[in-house]
Write a structure and sequence with these properties.
This protein is an all-alpha fold. 65% of the residues lie in helices and 0% in strands. The model has no long low-confidence stretch (mean pLDDT 86). It comes from Galeopterus variegatus.
Length: 83
Amino acid sequence: MLRSLPVLRQIAQRTISTASRRHFENKVPEKQKLFQEDNGIPVHLKGGVGDALLYRATMILTVGGTAYAIYQLAMASFPKKQA
């Protein structure tokens, strides 16, 4: 059991040290330019097609859910008459 402790420590150190070597390109300035551009598009749609699809899906679900809730409220307000 004691033999595996140095091996685990070495693996942990190797994982931590190699994780810091990865370099990613900083895309923040590009995104800032995109979102700060004055082109008349609302900020929640400036991300492209994906944002437009998410926005439309959200609106459809919101309107549909509201209509369904009003329908259920109306059905609960006027119960069926028993014969």
